[in-house]
Please model this.
Amino acid sequence: MTANNSTATQVKNGVNVEALLGAREALEKAPEAAQFKWRASCEWLNGTHSRSTIGKFFGLGAEQSRDTTFTVEADHPKVFASEDHAPTPVELVLSGLASCLTAGVAAIAQRRGIQLHSVKATLEADMDIQGILGIDDDVRNGFGAIRVHFDIRADADEDDIKALVAQSQKRSAVFDIITNPTAVFVTVN
Amino acid sequence: MRSATAIIIGAGHSGLAMSWHLTARSIDHVVLERGEIAHSWRTERWDSLRLLTPNWQSRLPGHGYAGADRDGFMTMPEVVHFLQRYAEVSRAPVIPGVRVTRVRQDAEGYELSTSQGGWRCRQLVIASGACNLASVPSLSAGLPTKVASLTPMQYRRPDLLPDGGVMIVGASASGVQLAREIQAAGRRVVLSVGEHVRMPRTYRGRDIQWWMDAIGAMDLRYDAAENIERARRLPSPQLVGTPERATVDLNSLRQAGVELVGRLAGLRDGKAQFSGSLANVCALADLKMNRLLAAIDAWVTASGLEQRFAAPHRPAPTVVGAGTKLSLDLIAEGIATVIWATGYRPDYSWLDVPVLDRHGRIRHDGGVVAAPGLYVMGLPFMRRRKSSFIDGAAGDAADLAAHLHQSLDRAAA
Ligand SMILES: Cc1cc2nc3c(=O)[nH]c(=O)nc-3n(C[C@H](O)[C@H](O)[C@H](O)COP(=O)(O)OP(=O)(O)OC[C@H]3O[C@@H](n4cnc5c(N)ncnc54)[C@H](O)[C@@H]3O)c2cc1C
Model:
């Protein structure tokens, strides 16, 4: 009943699915190694402008370093009387969701033997800023709703493409983070 | 201490089917049953429950439904009667009222402690059921004490529930059936929906179980499944057995007034928090249902039988309201009861043989357990997709009885 069982090697979406499947098999036998810790730090620059640094993480039972330490800046636009040096944090969250779902689409297409030609995600989120401004306590701070629209060109029929997108949500870390509550602990020294 | 060559634990349909095959092979055995024949169907089901599988599908080795309503669905008393009759005609050596409390392995086989003394055997078949315990998620600990907490094994009928609204967690067969019944009784019902399997009751003029059987989907073998671990974890289909052959899906429940919310993700300060993934789990279920219907259409076309069946169609997509709630204040909104229709699992607390994995599941290869002479029956997708259904016992019991017989012969040689 599965739509596509063709082997992954026939299509080129640039995702090494064999490696991912190998990792899954290895981690099923050693679940301790599946415990990852992701990290980020952030330094205030000026006004609402800040710079986050993303480097080492813990995984596969050891500290992992990478070739580059990445930086991501955030700021707020001029309508908030800020200087607009960079996107807002909530836009970064949206772009996190977009790229997580897009990576998922590519990986699942590779696994299902579907050749992709283009994938474009367009996201829009509603926010009633009365919440963050403290005008109305009944209004939540975060997004009221997020709409994600995918435009995908691929060698597959409409239902198979819809299934790619649905499966990508099912496996997406950021989709889960946004749709489910997570306990957050903030400390100060 | 009494002994038998083989012992079967449990006189449900699985144990009785196995007993039929052992009798056919003249293997001396007994069936130990803690209650009476069909104990689970007598004591662990709600009052209105009918099988979701049609009568013709209650096929057991050497026995089948003989009544006039082949397309109907048995009530619980009818199931009990059906199994009792089966035990009689097959002369199953059932010893009722014997609860197995401990099983140990020794050089010759197995030693059983029971509520009625000890037993020994060389071969042991565990047919004690896949649904002995209700699985309740650990987050249930956060439920306010004012709210009653029930499982489908404790639920009997709507008028025994405390006054007030009801939140049902889980939208598989048990959850959707209870939502339908409790809503019809005039209660407010909130149904929390996670991943689920959607199916129309009938398609192209036939029962969906008829189609699944005809196209061979129910016979798919465990060693031919693409991902057997995932297939075994698949929730039960959204089906109900009613005389009017009603389809129970999320659209019909919504029309009846049931309020749909996402998967229960948290309980904090008396508030239930629901996942925002409702639209996606519904999209996944619609896509999978349409894939099954397409497989049926392809089978019809390939067999050239188009004229015999009604035209193909697709049920309307599941409607997910834009105003779906993400949180619900249980106390303020008058929710008096939560029913955890979050699945069932077997109870192996009496099994003192190291054959369980870290999740407490029994390690087996198509029912042949990883200890000599030990077998299990009736688990989801154990040897075939239909293994946990009444209709699945015949094939599985035949295969496992052959294996059991062969290893006895080998030991004798
Ligand atoms: C709500 C519900 C609805 C279902 N509807 C259908 C349906 O429509 N169609 C269908 O085909 N299947 C249905 N099933 C699935 C399945 O057929 C039943 O779970 C069925 O009862 C399984 O049969 P079994 O013989 O494997 O186990 P059971 O019927 O559970 O039999 C096991 C027996 O073992 C006994 N036992 C357990 N532990 C011990 C012990 N320690 N010592 C001695 N005896 C013990 C029990 O008392 C019981 O009699 C349903 C299941 C549930 C839970």
